[in-house]
Automatic annotation (TrEMBL):
Top-rank taxon, per record: Bacteria
Region Disordered, annotated ranges: 141-174
InterPro entries, A to Z: BVU_3817-like_C_sf, BVU_3817_N_sf, DUF5606, DUF6852
Compositionally biased region (Basic residues): 165-174
Domain spans labelled DUF5606: 3-50
Protein name: DUF5606 domain-containing protein
Amino acid sequence: MNLTGLVAVSGKPGLYKLIGQNKSGFILESLDAQKSKLVVNMSTAKLASLEDITIYGEDEDLRLKDVFEAMKAFKGAVPEAKADGKDLRKFFFEVAPNHDETRVYASDIKKIVSWFHILKDLPIFSEEEQAVAEVQEVEVVEEEKPKATKAKEAKPKAEKAAKAPAKKATKKEA
């Protein structure tokens, strides 16, 4: 599952895809059928990347990505977000049995279920293998390039630095 670039905006329903940035904030595109674009101010809006979201667990926190994977693999039907809180809690214990019942509220579960229903129709669940392979290739290529360019850039700077004081010294002598 590839959650890269997907964010939730505080005070706004739904999920958004980060498509760019300008001087005043981030440019987002909604993941619903309308695909509306939105510019959020960096100083007033809070963005939460879905990759970074964790859920309180009894022993350790659970990653949202792992919970979504469990929801996808769930054999029964995933309830709607408007379902009864007790039904949602029962469902959530099946997909995330180690979550902390006292710190994970029914509203949190409703939000996670509604996000899952938005994402289940998108090709996000099948993107993982391609994205991970591409990221690994890009990291290898990027690691090699900066080392070579730094070495090339260092030589001209050192030569310029060596020549510059010599020129100044000759001007002072004259």
